[in-house]
Amino acid sequence: MDVIGEFLIENSMAKEVRTINEINKDSKVVYEVLRIIDRKPLFLENHLARMKNSFNLINIEYCLNDDEIVKDINTLIEKNNKIEGNIKITYNVSEKLLRIFFIKHSYPSELMYENGVKTILYFGERDNPNAKIINQSFRDKVNNKIKQNYAYEAILVDRNGYITEGSKSNIFMVKNNIILTSPVKSVLPGVTRGEIIKIANDNNIEVREIEYKYSDINKLQGMFICGTSPKILPINKVNDMDMNKDNKIIRKLMECYNNEIDDYIRLN
């Protein structure tokens, strides 16, 4: 397990991490990763809604209690005395085992937000992309490619040559001052992704869900990654292609999203 901290929560009981056994890697595990800021889980209700959706997509009845999960998260934060970080909620379907724990996180530096990050193209696709299910072999293959190329993230391309999503993020593109992103049927419907679409609509920035060929990347005005850890992070390079990290629409969305986070934490 990629757990950090002294304690985790297992079926609503706090346990020392050192006493916990690994879960069988062949088991089907539904999961969510969310961010803790100032001891508060960010956009928690959206993560729980997506977890329910993952259950539905694999035809498993949602058997968890959201109120209990909220209590468990608060207990986890208190027991580990954490102010910020990422937590993972996992449910092992066969063992009916719910675990909540802190995991290692890597947040972009201020320089990364300012200068953008390098990405690579990876020709591969997830099974059942709408469901957040652990697929370790796929994750390991992509991570190896990312490391080999000294990249921050890999942009997945499907068998038809369309950009789908990042290996651990969603991808947005800017063309003719319009935000483009893959149709939701082809990607994990990220919580951050949903917030960005809402923010864009609130600011009269048009968003279109379209299939976009990787071969047309050179026609874009900009691209960015979004997710729980990176928030909104400009892309400065895709393979050997340079991208505009300073696109005005991307910078506007970054500012608005950070304000959205501040408001959520203040009000919850």
UniProtKB/TrEMBL annotation:
Keyword Hydrolase appears in the UniProt entry: no
Keyword Lipid biosynthesis: no
Keyword vocabulary terms for this entry: Aminotransferase, Pyridoxal phosphate, Transferase
GO MF term (any one): transaminase activity
Gene Ontology CC: cytosol
Cofactor(s) listed: pyridoxal 5'-phosphate
GO BP: amino acid biosynthetic process; carboxylic acid biosynthetic process
Family recorded in the similarity comment: Belongs to the class-IV pyridoxal-phosphate-dependent aminotransferase family.
UniProt-recorded name of the protein: Branched-chain amino acid aminotransferase
